[in-house]
Structures
1.
Amino acid sequence: MTSAPLEYYLMLSAVLFCIGTAGVFVRRNLITILLSIEIMLNAVNLAFVAFGRMHGRADGQIIVFFVMTVAAAEAAVGLAIIISLFRHRESLNPDSFTELKW
Amino acid sequence: MFYAFAAVAVIASLLVIAQRNPIYSVLLLIASFGALSGLYVLLEAPFVAVIQIIVYAGAIMVLFLFVVMLLNAPHEDTDFDERTHPLLRPGPMRLGGLLAVALVLELIWALSVGAGAGRFGIGAATSVAAIGRMLFTDYAFAFEVTSVLILVAMVGAVVLARKEGAR
């Protein structure tokens, strides 16, 4: 059923990871930065599943399960922090949060 | 099939980065996750494909969408971001661009070194029963720690998002 070889999946994973990294570096919006982190996590998940398929084992998929759990926890805590920051400054630009204390 | 799903995933992810409005970003990311789910089906991992749709597109992205609409700040990065192109800005942004280029070069190098290594095996241990059995035997400890992590994240989110005067 799988027509494309492993390298294609790894290249796609690398491309998606680079897109996510570029998003973290370039965008100045906290929510978009969190979305870029989600893109990066998904790229890694794709690589895990592809490697697991190559070895014919289920370990890769179990790691993906754990990565998704960590992503859910990260999204919940990150969004809570964003809401808390937005209450303080009415802004989502990370450059407006340069002070350690206010 | 692979090329169709891969093209959808890449284009949707690029548009996520390019959008000004976070709501469109979230919706495009759901499309990207749908394409990735199709790729998981192609890799004979139906469990991960279903989890991708239910947990990622269904739960996490709805959480994002909820926060975006709660904050109600569609065009946030205005006065600073609209003036200059991000890569033309001085200092740390240039360093960030340099790091991104280094990452791309490293990935190209790694892929070129490892080229020709991969052939997919015949059999795939992908039944949900096999995954569940491994999850509760070999990975039982990690599974339990994960539940503690979820609990901590839940309590942390409640504490962090609490209103100031409510304590």
2.
Amino acid sequence: MMLEARDLACERGDLRLFSGLEFALSAGELLWVRGANGSGKTSLLRLVAGLSRPAAGSIHWRGEDIRALAEEYARELLFIGHSNAVKDEFSAEENLAVSLDLAGRRSSAAERAAALEQLGLAARARLPARYLSQGQKRRVALARLCLAADVPLWILDEPFAALDARALDTVVGLVDAHLARGGAAILTTHQEVTIAARARFSIALGD
Amino acid sequence: MTIDSYRLQGEAGIRGWLLFRFAAPQAFYPLAGRVIPWFGALATLLAAAGLYISFFVAPTDAQQGEAYRIIFIHVAAAWMSMFLYVVMACWAALGLVLNTRLSGMMASAIAPTGAMFTFVALWSGALWGKPTWGTWWVWDARLTSELILLFLYFGFIALTNAIEDPRRADRAGAVLAIVGVINIPIIYFSVQWWNTLHQGASVSLTRAPSMAMTMLTGMLLMALAAWMYSIAVVLARVRSIILERERDAEWVRGLRGVE
Amino acid sequence: MLAGLKAIVARDLRLSMRRRGDVLNHLVFFVIVVTLFPLGVGAEPNLLRAMAPGILWVAALLAAMLSLQRLFAADFADGTLEQMLISAQPLGVIVVGKMIAHWMMSGLPLTLLAPVLGVQFDLPQAALATLVLSLAIGTPVLSLIGGVGAALTLGVRGGGVLLALLVLPLYVPVLIFGAGAVAEVSGGMSAAPHLSLLGAFLAISCAVAPWATCAALRVAYD
């Protein structure tokens, strides 16, 4: 078992979004977080990523509290949230290089070019990102997934939103391959997608 | 949505110490209410005694006449302004480290009183300056430091008011207060040095008239009175902050007079 | 860790270079403010020479303050800061890297421009040199302390003015000793004690500011 949440509670302002939440995730497993808008899906993902502290409870990675692990845990996860973390002044290629750098992963120009090609951005790789459409910027953010084979935990917030059919297939394929390699993934999505996984769990928030 | 006893247990259960039993706002609220009148009474008594000594018992100063008596208020206010900032920073730091809600509320409750004393110190300094030097303001080391301390208080109040989420506001204020506390001695020292360089030989507030025993007693009494007053006022303010922040809790709804 | 630091500095510098307008604006502001003072107080040379250290220091301070918003605001808005918080690099390294890059694009140009403006005030040669030295030590302190303020006011309404209100009082000692150093040298004395105190402030800020900034960033996201 890799990831475990114990007695998790989350508040936003005065509102308690959820409490007493528990789950466990092992290699090859996918956790699908469902719920209406505002029910706390993004908040849960941010808690798991270590971006915010829970109001109660704890999260454990390989048995240890993630707050104790800090950077060690950060190295083992990949988080793609709502915002793309794409800078308008940088090209798609440069953006990818910077985000991989932050994640502690060195990459070669060839690897980055291949990743962008896989997401259908080869033609626009060198344009400043301000000239890309919303969907294309999303794809730049998702291109990290091509080079994240060694990252065990993927936390993806609405990864399939604003993608066309081909890009959708590509990203689903990437998640499939990741799970097959023994990685784990947590994601939220409103779309119906088929992902092959050793086990699929879902949590529905907001009842 | 009710914020239930879950959190109460969580916070009180951190350690079983008596101190932490009152760390939850629900327990602190009635306790504060009971002690406020005592502190208020103490403050009144001490102030009466201090003012009596200041105005009637302490001897007239040879150089400055009767006007110097304002120093009793000025010194007490200045001491309290600095003392309260340190206390505020301590509460804020406690809230940051232990993640207790009450600590942040205490810090927010202290700030306006601290700012008030700073303002009183400045105003009483000006009132002293006018008959003594003929001007309302002088760039004396202590006055200038007090002015900057006032800005520090304003900064804390402005920051905590500008952030809407109370927990984030408390924690941001805590970081600011801690950085400020480290800076206060540095600021005071810098201004002191700057002042001696530029002011030269003029009489300054920092060189108070040599202390007769009665003067010292007067100042101490006023300082103690200010301290008791601060405790009473801060506790009253924190009670209203508690009511405001915990307004969705069941125990608040159960209080008489709260709809 | 050093490689990570260099990477962050390089990234931020590259970003600034592509947004040159931002960077130049506050330099122009510096020149304008310095020019305003003689217009306001009259052109009496002795008066201006006496006031010059203070004017130049305050103007540099205000200009550097204007650029502080840039430190985290853009990264906060587009989600990059989020990634930095959960990056494999320690947050402290990232923060220090950003502050270094910020200083290189704001404090450093101001430091180099100041003596040119000091000539307008008829400051003696030695005073100009001290001006550069004092600003060279003092502007990094502003990037450091200002970083704390910028992190505290992330996404808060009234951000820019609030930032100034928070940072300027904390900055007073640096102003006093920085301008004081130049004034001493103008008067023919040594500025060594002032400069060493400035150095001490720099050391204290290096110790405290990165920690406080990281804490403030985490508070913003909690």
